[in-house]
Design a protein that fits this description.
Layout: E1 11-14, H1 22-27, E2 33-37, H2 39-42, H3 45-54, E3 60-63, H4 70-80, E4 86-91, H5 93-105, E5 131-135, E6 147-152, E7 158-163, E8 171-174, H6 184-202, H7 209-225, H8 233-253, H9 257-268, H10 273-290, H11 294-307, H12 315-326, E9 337-338, H13 340-349, H14 361-371, E10 373-374
Parallel strand pairs: 1-8, 2-3, 2-4, 4-5, 5-8, 9-10
Antiparallel strand pairs: 6-7
Helix pairs in contact: 4-5, 6-7, 6-8, 6-10, 7-8, 9-10, 9-13, 10-12, 10-14
């Protein structure tokens, strides 16, 4: 039997209007607090309703407009180290990851790159400032994971994490109203990222019975939400729950070859991470349908029996058709090129992570060529 470890927030609020817990939470423990956010939230109606009571509780605000680089983290640490004792993050996955990285490295002496997985030479200690995470998208599950993703496009051209159990945000507030007004393509990119987390963790060789049960629950929520992401309060609630469960299960069981490739592509091109994962998912489903690996076949049969027992033709084919037929934005149709050199780099650096089988270079090439246009 696989032994699983689940690490989650000390406090998690969920429900429409739950963002109103933020001000009382800050007031109950007064300390200098830094806000990480994005322009779309700061320019919106929810922030306008909070600003008068929230602003006096903050020492400052940092705006995150892209996936944070090691240089971004180092600048924020130099500006705020010793001046703030708590962090609030309100935004998408890039905002939450930036805040998590800052909160940790404000308590570490070396530059960010020294601690990054894949390239660093120093281990994180686990010291971190307390963090309150409030997602405004539903995809990464960063509000409940122990890793902060950093993208280095200048030196090593790598996307890697800072990771420690203590880096899970102390508190999370999940308010589905914060998804309202999100562009359809962003809703789709983020939701398919959540699905990929749930699906890959379900198929992971390190998954246990608890994480697989949570993955199935999350996938069921995704299937409910996916066709109505842009028009239903119930769908927004469901996809936010699915994203949170995806964060829990990826932490418990790890991810697979899709993310093993997506991280390398993301270090080379500034494509949305969820879109990259979604595009790789489609050819992966084709590979999976042809797989004779016994545990994969048993797990896919269990998934189909539990979630769509009346469908015929194979679970992989059903999922591919359901996702493409019901998408609120056709994430697989945009022209996303990779150069031959980028293809070669992605193949060289990518891996199968926690997949039940080791995917060959030829199979990973098939996935990449199925997801991207390779330039002449």
């Amino acid at each position: 039997m696989t032994v699983s470890l689940m690490i989650a927030n000390r406090q998690t609020w969920f429900g429409t209007g739950s963002i109103n817990q933020l001000v009382p939470l800050l007031q109950s423990d007064a300390r200098p607090t830094l806000l990480f956010s994005c322009r779309s939230f700061l320019g919106g109606a929810v922030y306008a309703g909070l600003a008068d009571t929230l602003m006096p509780l903050l020492a400052g605000t940092e705006i995150v407009s892209h996936e944070a680089s090691p240089q971004d983290i180092d600048r924020w640490v130099a500006r705020w180290r010793g001046k703030v004792l708590r962090v609030v993050a309100i935004g998408g996955g890039s905002v939450l990851d930036a805040a998590k990285a800052f909160a940790a490295l404000a308590e570490h002496p070396l530059p960010a790159m020294r601690y990054m997985e894949k390239i660093g030479d120093s281990k994180v200690s686990g010291a971190t400032l307390p963090l309150i995470a409030i997602p405004t998208t539903a995809g990464t599950g960063s509000e409940v994971t122990q890793n902060a993703v950093i993208t280095d496009t200048l030196v090593h051209k790598v996307k890697a994490s800072l990771r420690h159990n203590n880096f899970v945000p102390q508190a999370a507030i999940l308010d589905p109203q914060l998804l309202a007004g999100t562009p359809d393509r962003v809703l789709a990119y983020c939701a398919i990222d959540a699905f990929t987390h749930l699906f890959e963790s379900y198929l992971s060789k390190t998954a246990g019975s608890l994480s697989r049960e949570m993955s199935l629950t999350g996938i069921r929520l995704f299937l409910q939400a996916w066709p109505a992401l842009n028009r239903s309060d119930a769908a927004r609630e469901a996809i936010m729950q699915a994203s949170y469960l995806g964060g829990l299960t990826l932490s418990m069981a790890g991810l697979g070859v899709i993310h093993g490739i997506a991280g390398e592509v993301g270090a080379l091109r500034g494509y949305h991470h969820g879109q990259v994962c979604g595009r790789l998912l489609l050819p992966f489903l084709d590979l999976l349908a042809a797989s004779e690996q016994p545990q994969q076949r048993a797990l896919m049969a269990e998934l189909a029996m539990r979630l769509f027992p009346d469908e015929q033709g194979g679970p992989e084919r059903y999922l591919r058709a359901f996702i493409t037929r019901n998408a609120v934005a056709p994430f697989w149709r945009e022209d996303l090129p990779l150069s031959p050199e980028e293809l070669a780099m992605s193949l060289e650096k990518s891996n199968s992570k926690n997949s039940l089988l080791e995917y060959s270079s030829a199979q990973r090439r098939e996935m990449i060529e199925g997801a991207f246009r390779i330039e002449e």
